[in-house]
């Protein structure tokens, strides 16, 4: 398993797209980061790729308004999606992003894994639950990262992970849950492993032909 570990540090900015028509060709594998505004999506991307300012972070919710694509290597991309659930943006703007987000999730064939980021202090809000439920129904594997774990004691953080795991277990599907902190790098190894395994499915057909090699 660990030999699949992909070097996420190689990620580099490819494009910011207002909607799915402007995205790179829909081939290879994409892993998307979704979650409420301010949940820590962009920070998690920077932490996982060990790049301080790959994705733009902000104290002001609603910072990521476009679909931002980062290529790791050919056919392997990380995607920072616009956050949902932030009340204070003008309705027209909100409609536009939610449309882009919805279209991305529904139509993107290369989407092979969804990282759902939720603040550990208030996880599984309605929209989070709906998103995860949709992913499970669509047979998309989910990695739920409970972000800002540094804001809780270790005991409380572990209890919250168990709590979320228990609730999500009812959905069935391939759903993993870990505590995560960009500040303390909690959960980075686990998250990297899960994401690596998703990307590795692209290389698998070659592995199956092991007989070709000596
Ligand atoms: N303490 C702590 N703060 C964090 C952590 N991750 C993110 N933050 C803070 O949370 C705020 C939002 O982080 P972002 O990464 O910009 O959140 P986002 O989900 O990309 O937000 P939008 O793009 O607006 O949807 C910033 O002020 C970050 O510094 C963490 O692990 N620990
Ligand atoms: Mg962001």
Automatic annotation (TrEMBL):
Residues 27-201 form the EngB-type G domain. Belongs to the TRAFAC class TrmE-Era-EngA-EngB-Septin-like GTPase superfamily. EngB GTPase family. The keyword DNA damage does not apply. Necessary for normal cell division and for the maintenance of normal septation. The keyword Transcription regulation does not apply. The gene is engB. This is Probable GTP-binding protein EngB. PANTHER family: ENGB-TYPE G DOMAIN-CONTAINING PROTEIN, MSS1/TRME-RELATED GTP-BINDING PROTEIN. Its cofactor is Mg(2+). HAMAP family: GTPase_EngB. Keywords: Cell cycle, Cell division, GTP-binding, Magnesium, Metal-binding, Nucleotide-binding, Septation. It comes from the Bacteria. It comes from Thalassotalea loyana. InterPro entries: G_ENGB_dom (IPR030393), GTP-bd (IPR006073), GTP-bd_ribosome_bio_YsxC (IPR019987), P-loop_NTPase (IPR027417).
